[in-house]
Design brief:
Radius of gyration: 19 Å
Oligomer: single chain
Number of helices: 9
Mean pLDDT: 91
Number of strands: 10
Shape: globular
Strand content: 25-35%
Structural class: alpha/beta
Distance between the termini: 30 Å
Amino acid sequence: MLQVENLSKEFTKLNNKRQKEKFLANENMSFTAQDGEIIGIIGPNGAGKTTLLRMIAGLLTPTQGKIIIDDLQYPESEIAIKKKLAYLSGNTKIYNTLTPYELLQMWWDFYEVAGDFPKRLTEITTILNLQDFLYSPIAKLSTGQVQRVNIARCLIHNPKYYIFDEATSGLDIISSQIILDFIKQEKKRGKTILYSTHYMEEVDGICDRIILIDKGQIIENDTPENIKKKTKTTNLRDTFFALIGDQL
């Protein structure tokens, strides 16, 4: 189980007078994510979604609060936690001079995964349909193919928790569907997925629960069905506008 308790993150910015001032990107956030649960993280631009996910992934240090993953906490158990996680954003960069095969071999070694690499490679290649470009330089792949290679990189060490931040942004419908199907299959295997996106139809189609963030605070944490009932709407796009307004 993943637990977020009273999490806040403070940054410093320059105001219009070029003076430094502090602001909270996330303020006193708390929620849990159960095994086998897909949680949609939604909200307008600048709401604090990416900051939240980066703290959970161990890429940012909270100003206050704590993150507990299977009874482990940062910073004392950072390495153990990160071996349980996979983090992917829409603009994650990978070495474009390598082939997908070489990249996956590198990550296999990096995570010190025990087992049979060729067998695991075959499994991942089949799941994500990498056969046609497994040995092609990443620099020559399409945007959708590169993102599938990124998903494969996340999958190589068989993580328990996935953190996807705009993972299908800018992808064609086929590549997006491959990623969404992969997420649903991982849920069946008991994996926990935090899924941030601006595509409300994706959230409605795959998420068990929604965390709606606005101005650094959680304003809704419930199932899609319950949130739609509360707002008397029939789809999440209308729900979003009912709760936050035209900020998408």
